[in-house]
Every structure is written in C-alpha cells, then in structure tokens.
C-alpha cells in the first residue's frame, strides 16, 4: 500500500508520471467509491503522515522482514516503535472520518473499517513484541541448545 497507493499523495509530478496508469486509476477509484476526502484533498497534516510512512515505515518493512524471517530478537523494540507510531498516526484519520461533517453513517463506517486495519495490525505487532516472551522459533532453539 505504501509504495503503490499512499506514496501518490507525496510524490512530485515527474515521479507520478512513471507510475503505471492502473495504479493511478486504482487510487482515483478508491477516492470516488469511498469518498476519501483525505486522499483527495491532501491536507498538510495528512501529507506529513504519508511522508513518515514513506521515509520511516517503508524502510522498516524490509528490516523487519529480514529480522522476522531470520528469527532475530533485536527487532522487538523497533517493532514496538513502528507499531505504536503507525497506529497513532491513524487515530486522527479515524476521528476525521467518524466525526467529520458531510458523510452518511455507512460511508463513515466504511472508511473507518478501511483505515482501522492500519490501526489494529500495527497495534497488534507492538503488543505482540512487548508482551510475548519469545516470538521467534529460532530464539527458542538457541535457548534450548
């Protein structure tokens, strides 16, 4: 999502021109179908959050993928930081959708459901890393041996 859709809110026009038309069409479909005014209007606070996603979270995805696959326990603290950061950046968006003006109840609920997943899953990552003893099978083998 970060690379394919979200980054379209912050990329300069010359970089947007390099994206396949299907991705641009998909984003426009989302905006029109779900009446997502944040992506459509790009308020400055939303753009700031997207920049955080592109500059901080995107590189973390690759580091985390390596650490999870290799069973590296050092990913715990960075994963907690990622989870809390990602979840808290979604809270203002959910509040805007739910309490904002001009949307019917079904539309508010739909947007909250779409964006809510970006609150729940990072929060689950943070909680798992914070409260599970040994989340990585490779760590279990090291401790037993």
TrEMBL record:
Protein name: EXPERA domain-containing protein
Species, as recorded: Tetradesmus obliquus (Green alga)
Family indicated by similarity: Belongs to the TMEM97/sigma-2 receptor family.
Signal peptide range: none
Main location: endoplasmic reticulum
Keyword Transmembrane: yes
Membrane topology qualifier: Multi-pass membrane protein
Keywords (A to Z) from UniProt: Endoplasmic reticulum, Membrane, Transmembrane, Transmembrane helix
Subcellular location: Endoplasmic reticulum membrane
PANTHER family (alphabetical): SIGMA INTRACELLULAR RECEPTOR 2
Record-linked InterPro entries: EXPERA (IPR033118), Sigma-2_receptor-like (IPR051987), Sigma2_recept (IPR016964)
The EXPERA domain, residue ranges: 1-126
Superkingdom per UniProt: Eukaryota
Cited Pfam families: EBP (PF05241)
Coiled-coil intervals: none
Parts of the chain that traverse the membrane: 44-68, 80-101, 113-132
